[in-house]
Each structure stands twice: as structure tokens, then as C-alpha cells.
Amino acid sequence: MTIGTSLLESYVPDIDVTLVTRILDAGATILGKAVCGAFCLEGSSITASTGLIPNPHNLAHAADGSSSGCGALVAAGEVDLAVGADQGGSLRIPSSWCGLHGLKPSYGLVPYSGAASLEFTLDHVGPMANSIEDMALLLQAMAGPDDFDSRQHGCQIGDYTGALNRGAKGLKIAVLKEGFARPGSDAKVDKKVRAALCRFEKLGCTVNEVSLPLHLDAVHIWIAIAREGAAQNMLKSGGVGANQQGYQITPLADASARALKQRPDDMADTAKLTLLFGEYMQRHYHGRYYAKGQNLRHTLRTVYDSVFKDYDLIALPTVTTLAPLLPDPDNCSVAQYEHDAHDSLLNPSAFNATGHPASNMPCGMIGDLPVGLSFVARHFDEESIIRATAAFSESIDWTKI
Amino acid sequence: MAAFSTVRTPSAAEMTDLAEDFGMHLDGDLAQSYRDLVDEGLESYRRLDQLVEPKLPVRYARGPGYRPEPEEDPLNAWWRKS
What we know:
Chain A has one domain: Amidase signature (AS) domain (Amidase signature (AS) enzymes), CATH 3.90.1300. Chain A is 39% helix and 13% strand. Chain A has helices at 18-25, 68-75, 92-98, 132-142, 160-163, 187-202, 215-235, 250-262, 269-285, 288-307, 334-344, 350-354, 382-395, and strands at 54-55, 58-62, 81-85, 101-104, 125-129, 172-176, 206-210, 313-317, 358-366, 369-377. An eight-stranded mixed beta sheet of chain A has the order 3-5-4-9-10-8-6-7. Chain A has a two-stranded antiparallel ribbon with strand order 1-2. In chain A, strand 6 (172-176), helix 6 (187-202) and strand 7 (206-210) form a beta-alpha-beta unit. The model of chain A has no long low-confidence stretch (mean pLDDT 94). By secondary structure, chain B is mainly alpha-helical. Chain B has a domain at 12-58. Chain B contains two helices and no strands. Chain B has helices at 12-21, 28-50. The longest helix of chain B has 23 residues, at 28-50. At the A-B interface, helix 7, helix 9, helix 10 and helix 11 of A face helix 1 and helix 2 of B.
């Protein structure tokens, strides 16, 4: 396990994470560990210490990340399934750009125990697959408490494979106005997502637009938590630290401490910037913005929950653009790395802050690149997402629209 | 009108010093790029300054209370009385 950084290349875990044991129990075979972006801090598959990861749909474009290796390997058919981590969109973004079904489950549904923590209150892990059936199967195998993860409270496990055949009839879908036409949004992506949503009326769903202006601020609230949280928790102490119970990876704490002393300059610029920025905010503002972010996430959650009084699903573009061209690694500025990451997490990061389940459903192609639609549901209502997605996928081949 | 915020952008030299505390070498153009990216990133914190955070509800009237004189507190056990 390297978390995408050469700093940890000699680190080999001495345990399996709970979800891997569950996957093996369910009869799957583990073929390997995929590359991920440096310290999971990217949105464009260009920061891993092992190099760029191209998009199988068009090798000139990025697979995106930070679960970039997972996205590329599933899309290329080298594996049937992958498990990605997602703290700001890291499994939904590559799922969108590689044309996969991906799900960031409700906070705490899948045990995080034994996986490297980025920020305890944002950590999620979930399935990525080429079909909704495979995605539901993997979720079913992984979900539920393991008594080791204090992220897990009041877990309600659903019948995900059963939901595949229940149809979408009767589901109420709210189209989130503020998820579209954001700064930097590709109008073609917005149009493709809206066209896909129109099809849900034929599947027996109600589809209406709703407006939540606070969605535009969600990324700022997320950043306040993620930047200082990641700097303190993952980058300075290997995801092991005070004030949290649950399984702690002591060998990773040792390996991270050694690595940070041994070769700090080898950290990718995106990770260095997060570390230095987070440290700057700590030294000069002493955690007040982190604290305010944590309080505001409560407001944010309440705002989306108000929609769920009348609707079962909120829909928006997973990412606001298509997969970008891979940069020339010898001629890519720190600013480009950073901007690529920031733009791709505008929509998805909101639901790491709120903990609602949020998916990617491939909903069409523009040229040879996939477009993704994200469904968000009530906490622990992954079934509604699977019902809607399965009904859509059965009604049409997304690669043809 | 630009929103009021007191969040300060560090200088490139401050970025260099901060990096040095972690044993990292960061100077010249790269330090300036980091400084510029921090400046852009501070947009989120400036926005947070505009947002009102929720507070736990206060349902009963409350005042600052007072520190009792020794005669009122023979056991020396009160910090404040309401």
C-alpha cells in the first residue's frame, strides 16, 4: 500500500482490511492493488509516483482520480470490480470519466477499518464496476458494521441485489439546479445529463427541478474540513491519531513518520501544498475554520435532507466536465495539477461533507468520452439509487446515446 | 463590493520557511506558485467568513452569573452562581 506516493513504496500492510476479507468470503479473487493518486489528493490521474494513467476510452485523456488505477482497470476489462476510496469524489470522478457504475455509500455503511484514512469524518469506500448488477453485488458483500470502525453508527443494510429488479416506478427525482452551469461546466455535459433525466419519466418516475443555493458553497465547507483534516491526519501522522476510536494502523504511523523525515521532497506538489496550506491555517487560525466547517456541514446536510422530504433522489452531473487531456508530465505546472483537482470535485465533494450516498451512472457519450450522472439519496437508502440506475441501464445502452 | 474577510495570504518567503520546517526545499518560482495557489484557495475561507454557522439552541434565558462572596459560599465550592 503506497497511497500513490513513493514515500511509502516499501510499506506492506500486515493485515487485510475488513472489506477485503468480506470480498474474499463472498468468493471473489483479488488480482492486485491498483495505483491511486498521490495521497489521494487529485482529481485527474496525474500525480501518482508511478506516472500518468490514461483513460481506456481515449488514451490521450485522463482516467481521473484519485482512484485512477481502479477506474482504468475496470473500464479496460482487466478486472470486473474495484474498490475505491472517496473523500471528495475520488471514486465517483474516475467512474464518471471511465464510464463505470460507482457508489460512494452512506458514511459508515462499508467499514473503513484497516484502510488508510485521509480525514476521519470524510472517509468513504465503495464499489466500482462495469454494470449496476456487479456494483450492487460488491456493495452487498462489503456493507455492514464490523465493530472496529467508529465511523459506523446506526447502519441500515439494504437489499441491494434485490433492488436491481424492483424497477424505478414511483421514484421521485429532484434535479439539482445548482449542480449544472457551474463555473467551468461543459454545457454539452449538462445537456447530456438532462437528456438522460428526461428518460426517467418514461420509467415511471417524477422528475422536477429544485434549487438549493447552498450547494454552491458546499465545496468551501468541504475544503475547510478536508484541507486541515488531511494535513493533520494523513500527511502528518499517517491517518493514525488522537481523539478517535476504532482500528488504527500502527505500522502505517511508523512508516509515514519515517517517510516524512527520510524523503519529504519526494512528496507530490499537490500533497505538499495541502500539507503546507493546512499547516498555515493551523498556525495562524488555530483550527477555527476547520471547526466552522464541521458546524456548517450540519447546515448543509439539513438543506439536502429538506429535499428528501418530498423526493427520493437528487440528480446532478457527477463531474461538470469531460475527462481532460493528460498533461505533458515534463511541462505541467503545479497550478494545472491543482486546478484540475479542484474543478472535478465541485459537485461530488458536497456529499462527502453530508455523508449521503452518491453514485455515478454512465448516461451517454460525447465523442469517445463517457458522461456521468450522479444520484444522491437519503442516508442508507442506496436501494433507490440502484433501482433507478438498473431501470435506466435496462432501458437503453448508454454507450449509444 | 468585495466581501470583508481578514484571512491573510502568506508571502512566498513564508511558504519557503513553512516547507523548511518539514525538511522540504521550496524556493524561487515554485514558492511563488505555492503562494499564488494558497491565495486562490483562501477563497473558500473568505466565503466561510460570510456564512453563518449554526449554534446549539439556547432555549432558556441565560446571563453571565456572578462570583459569590465568601459569606455566600462557605464551602468555597461555587465558581459562579446564576
